[in-house]
Automatic annotation (TrEMBL):
Pfam family, one: ApbA
BP terms from Gene Ontology: pantothenate biosynthetic process
Residues annotated as domain Ketopantoate reductase C-terminal: 212-337
InterPro entries assigned to the protein according to its UniProt record, in alphabetical order: 6-PGluconate_DH-like_C_sf, 6PGD_dom2, ApbA, KPA_reductase, KPR-Related, KPR_N, NAD(P)-bd_dom_sf
Natural source organism: Leucosporidium creatinivorum
Any one GO molecular function term: 2-dehydropantoate 2-reductase activity
Stated name of the protein: Ketopantoate reductase PanE/ApbA-domain-containing protein
Entry GO CC: cytoplasm
Alphabetized UniProt keyword annotations: NADP, Oxidoreductase
Family stated for the protein in its record: Belongs to the ketopantoate reductase family.
Cross-referenced Gene3D superfamilies: N-(1-d-carboxylethyl)-l-norvaline Dehydrogenase, domain 2, NAD(P)-binding Rossmann-like Domain
Claim: Oxidoreductase is one of the keywords in the record: yes
Ranges of residues in domain Ketopantoate reductase N-terminal: 11-166
């Protein structure tokens, strides 16, 4: 955190895709914030024209980042350290280690808070291990957004983002008071304030276990619907929810998560989340005939899927506590092998 008064808050967005561009453009509207971005494939488009946002919630507007960097090492040359490094890449720990990637902008700056806006569970652990003295903030969003062309991002609906500090994962006992805990909570509170100042009225502040419960709850949808959508031959959420056998299967998967998370985290579901049960989710999915889960879109495009953070990690975290989630384990085993086989076929086709 900037301790010198009137110093701007400096934010770096890493992975300026749909989610990174949307929240980055809102943070930039908070007073006294400078939001810079790193871009990979879209560097030249974003450098020359900035980002164009077409949003349901705030209309269309242009976002000119404070600085645009082609890489993390370029961002590490900035004259000031960043207060927040916001990671909004797809979470693919089996493909690349994001904590290693961001090391040049974090190492040596123990005040830099790392914010992870990614799906799934267990995404924080590599950052916690590599940066033991930096605040790590964990964020879950329900936004629906996609990149439409270089430098253009469309937000279809929803803005909610839930943010909480990450100390050791909320899996053990309640975290003891510590200097890192205090700094993490302070960074967390400030980040939520900045989001609100940028117009995200439903940015929500959580404690560690509370945020992990939100993560697991979102997982109930993503770990049931998304792999099933791929394995059932590219079926959308609505059709799956209306099919009697698949509906039983989906509810069974969701209930594994609903029963497991409170045992893993040692805290019951808060009333607000407990109300949203399998039946509610399936009923609302019946009406959702528009979008396809991003896991299916990635599968169809031959890209890696967020399989480890959506299935592998929760299965392993539960297993370490002596709990099996057999329906999800089957989905994981089948889809993982399908993905390995697809990759083998792709490399053969290239020969
Ligand atoms: N989109 C949604 O509606 C939504 C909603 C809720 C949660 N989420 C979650 O939010 C996260 C981000 O999703 P997204 O939809 O924003 O993904 P996305 O549009 O594909 O954006 C990911 C961005 O990260 C960049 N990137 C990936 N790996 C990188 C690396 N190693 N180095 C530098 N840049 C890298 C990509 O750059 P390139 O273009 O160069 O590949 C891309 O710009 C995911 O965990 C997703 O599940 C998304
Ligand atoms: C970046 O460029 C690629 C290739 O043109 C495009 O598919 C993608 O949507 C773009 N992303 C952004 C953030 O504009
Ligand atoms: C998670 O579920 C939501 C809601 O169905 C969907 O929009 C999103 O694409 C899913 N994420 C992944 C990684 O498939």
């Amino acid at each position: 955190m900037s301790t010198i008064p009137n110093q701007p808050t400096r934010i770096l967005i890493v992975g300026t895709g749909a989610v990174g561009a949307f929240y980055g453009s809102r943070l930039a509207l908070a007073p006294q914030t400078l939001v810079s971005v790193t871009c990979r494939s879209n560097y030249s488009a974003v450098l020359s024209s900035g980002l164009q946002l077409d949003t349901h919630s705030f209309g269309s507007y242009h976002f000119a980042p404070h600085a645009v960097y082609p890489s993390i090492s370029a961002a590490a040359q900035a004259p000031h350290p960043f207060d927040y490094v916001v990671v909004a890449t797809k979470a693919l720990p089996d493909v690349s280690d994001d904590s290693e990637m961001i090391a040049p902008v974090v190492q040596g700056n123990k005040e830099t808070a790392i914010v992870l806006i990614q799906n799934g569970v267990g995404v924080e652990q590599p950052h916690r291990q590599r940066f033991p003295n930096n605040p790590v903030l964990s964020a879950v969003t329900v936004v629906s957004a996609q990149q439409t062309s270089p430098g253009s991002v469309k937000q279809n609906r929803w803005t909610r983002i839930s943010v909480g500090p990450f100390l050791q994962g909320g899996i053990g006992e309640e975290e003891k008071e510590s200097e890192l805990k205090q700094r993490s909570e302070k960074a967390n509170r400030r980040f939520v304030e900045l989001l609100k100042e940028g117009g995200i009225a439903d940015a929500e502040e959580y404690d560690e276990k509370g945020l992990q419960l939100v993560r697991w709850h979102k997982l109930a949808i993503n770990s049931s619907m998304n792999p099933s959508s791929v394995l059932s031959g590219s079926t959308g959420n609505s059709r799956m929810s209306l099919d009697p056998e698949l509906r039983l299967h989906l509810a069974g998967c969701m209930n594994e998560i609903f029963q497991t998370a409170p045992k893993v985290l040692g805290r019951p579901w808060p009333e607000k989340l407990a109300k949203v049960d399998a039946d509610k989710i399936l009923k609302s999915s019946e009406r959702n005939s528009e979008g396809l889960p991003s896991m299916l879109v990635d599968w169809q495009a031959g890209r890696p899927m967020e399989l480890e953070v959506i299935l592998g990690n929760p299965i392993r975290i539960a297993r370490a506590k002596g709990i099996e989630m057999p329906r999800l384990q089957s989905l994981y085993a089948l889809l993982k092998m399908a993905s390995i086989r697809r990759q083998e076929d792709q490399s053969k086709a290239k020969l």
